[in-house]
């Protein structure tokens, strides 16, 4: 495979395409990533999403078709009120976990921010492609879905360029394109150990073309006064979500879906999340790694999952 590594989206980006593909596709892909990051980021003062945030409580903002598409998906899932919340921005900015100035905010500021994160106060206008945050102080944050959306757009681009197979890896958000070079066409993907550096795996899962996204409390955190505060904020309390899950992996057809269901798996546990997915017509498989070093997996992965670290126990 032809491989290139880039930096973007706040992470390391690894792109691999089949040897038969045009190698110029990789720098073109990096330009595509930069274009979407410029549009969707909330870590700069100017972007399409920041235009929406700057006009909270003021007026609806018209945005591009791609930006409107991802915002609409994120809002619809947020309005399930099951943990995933695109309006979480005020709390993310308050805690700053994973960014400079990370801190434990005063209770009063958390209480204030909780008043500004109700996703029901987001008004979408499909006809005019506008987004309106009806309350001053509201902020969208696409951090829980943007990498997945961008990965899906990369796959569309690669397919338009007749890339037969490849791997899109946006900082651990993996989207597989086509069949692998193995005789059975399946891919062997490592599952990140919550206790080790990225790239050190506790298991391997063998899957067809799909997306596999892992998130964990180990990724970004703040240590202070003997406590560890991770980056997954509970929209009900305003504090990092209390869970016995150390890391969770979702396997889905698209990367956007994998981002969504990784989050929903964290907040609801894999049993309830599996039920939610079935009720809503989503295809999702889960791998949950718990802080007591046990692992649970979806039934349809039982023959595709190989534990490689004897520290962990499959239950």
From TrEMBL:
Similarity remark: Belongs to the ApbE family.
Cofactor: Mg(2+); Mn(2+)
Catalyzed reaction equations: L-threonyl-[protein] + FAD = FMN-L-threonyl-[protein] + AMP + H(+)
Keyword presence, Disulfide bond: no
Keywords: FAD, Flavoprotein, Magnesium, Metal-binding, Transferase
MF annotations from Gene Ontology: metal ion binding; transferase activity
Domain of life: Bacteria
Annotated binding of Mg(2+), by residue: 144, 263
Pfam family, one: ApbE
Presence of the UniProt keyword Aminoacyl-tRNA synthetase in the record: no
N-terminal signal peptide: none
InterPro entries, A to Z: ApbE (IPR024932), ApbE-like_sf (IPR003374)
Protein name (database record): FAD:protein FMN transferase
Record-annotated membrane-spanning stretches: none
Gene3D superfamilies cross-referenced by the UniProt entry: ApbE-like domains (3.10.520.10)
Cofactor note: Magnesium. Can also use manganese.
Enzyme class: transferase
EC number, UniProt record: 2.7.1.180
Organism: Lentilactobacillus curieae
Coiled-coil segments on the chain, per record: none
